[in-house]
Amino acid sequence: MAQIRAEKQGLSSHKKKKILVPSSAKKISKTSKLNRKPQFYGLEKELLLKIHDLMVQSRALEERLIKIYKAGDAYFWIGAPGEEAWAVPLGMQVHKGRGPEYDWLHLHYRGTPTLIAMGMPMVDSIRLIMNRATDVCTGGRNFSNHYCFPEWNVAPVSSPIEVQYLQALGTAHVQKRQNRSKGVTIVTGGDAGTAEGDFASCLVWASRKGFELPMLITVQNNRWGISTNYEGQHGESQISDRARAFNMPAQTINGNDPVESYIKIQEAMTYIRTKRKPAFIEALVSRLYGHSSASGANFIKDEEDCLIRFEKKLIEAGYLKSAEAKTLFENYEAEAQKIAESVRQEPFPESSTLWDHTYANHENADWRNF
Ligand SMILES: Cc1ncc(C[n+]2csc(CCOP(=O)(O)OP(=O)(O)O)c2C)c(N)n1
Ligand SMILES: [Mg+2]
């Protein structure tokens, strides 16, 4: 699929972005063994192919979610095609489990690649968008990409943007206080959302001297907030400049490059796990299908496609054949289609379950009980 799209787009028309060479990666590449290719900064072939596989799976799933919406089998789609090169390496480096000893995730509505990398089965995402009672995240009550996995410390995704930056302070605070493990808190969100006070409060509370919090604070900058573009909205040169003012290591990276993402996340995670202090990453990403179904969910051909970019590199390095990449996509696509057909037969939630898991004053929030 990615190849087909590459031909349609014409690879030469890709936006030229400056690729930052990871600082520690330079050192790694000097010691490269024979089976390592210098352009991958020491990452092994096996790891690269794993990243690619997860990116393909996530893309095939997201494109299926869009088809489900367009076929009338869902009310709304929002998701992450175009963020895989950032979000897959993130998910691969999560120490997953339940409780403060493990990493906590406060994701926004573009978390599919991270969860696929953590091992989420595609069916979970499909049941969620199709609002089936079998949806393990919300019982069929929320939008696509609004995940919730208590067993992996994945907090419920919130539709109001940016509130996750405050909620993340809570789990990071517990992790700091307990100081028993290397568990960290990860928070993600978009560029436009950084205009909200929650983002500023997060930087303030994460960085107080003597009580710095073990947090990876991230922003996925796709240069859009629905239909408002980045230009004209920011006085700062880079969003990461704001975090730097709070004395935390902060960088802006090419989130369309999974190698750069993997290495930079690894560096930041190591720092946070050992120092128990925050670090910040702004990842420059693409928005391949616009904001959501509200803006049509059509493919935007001017955006750089991280999957095509990565596949090209892997093929040039001799790690992957074009036909293999095509088959991989087709297999995931067929699997997702089959799952969607089967989920269509599953029941919607009963109206009697409407108030389950909602609370007011420690009681079930069904107003009819009050
Ligand atoms: C508090 C709040 N204000 C406004 C909205 C409407 N809204 C939904 S997404 C969005 C744009 C967010 O843009 P950005 O933070 O850059 O994330 P992106 O969608 O680009 O990934 C807005 C304004 C909302 N959901 N919540
Ligand atoms: Mg944005």
Which characteristics define this entry?
five-stranded parallel beta sheet, Rossmann fold, 370 residues, 9 strands, binds magnesium ion, 12 helices, single chain, binds thiamine diphosphate, alpha/beta
Describe the secondary structure blueprint for this structure.
Blueprint: H1 2-9, H2 23-30, H3 45-70, H4 84-92, E1 104-106, H5 112-118, H6 122-129, H7 164-178, E2 185-187, H8 197-206, E3 215-221, E4 224-225, E5 228-229, H9 239-244, E6 250-254, H10 258-275, E7 279-284, H11 306-316, H12 322-343, E8 359-360, E9 363-364
Parallel strand pairs: 1-2, 2-3, 3-7, 6-7
Antiparallel strand pairs: 4-5, 8-9
Magnesium ion (MG) binds at residues 190-192, 222, 224-225.
Please explain how this structure is put together.
The chain starts with a helix and ends in a 6-residue tail after the last strand. Strands 1-2-3-7-6 form a 5-stranded parallel sheet, sandwiched between helices. The chain has a two-stranded antiparallel sheet with strand order 4-5. The chain is an alpha/beta fold. Helices cover about 40% and strands about 10% of the residues. The protein has one domain: 3-Layer(aba) Sandwich (Rossmann fold). Bound molecules: thiamine diphosphate (TPP) and magnesium ion. Magnesium ion binds next to β4.
Order of helices and strands: HHHHEHHHEHEEEHEHEHHEE
What gross morphology would you assign? Answer: globular
Are any ligands bound, and if so which? thiamine diphosphate, magnesium ion
Number of DSSP helices?
A: 12
Read across the widest sheet, the strand sequence of neighbours is 1-2-3-7-6
CATH superfamily annotation: Thiamin diphosphate (ThDP)-binding fold, Pyr/PP domains
End-to-end gap:
55 Å
- Specify the CATH class: Alpha Beta
The number of distinct β-strands equals: 9
Biggest pleated sheet: 5 strands, parallel
Q: Specify Rg, calculated over alpha carbons.
A: 20 Å
- Strand percentage, roughly? 5-15%
- What is the CATH topology assignment? Rossmann fold
- Structural class, by secondary structure, is alpha/beta
Fraction of helical residues = 40-55%
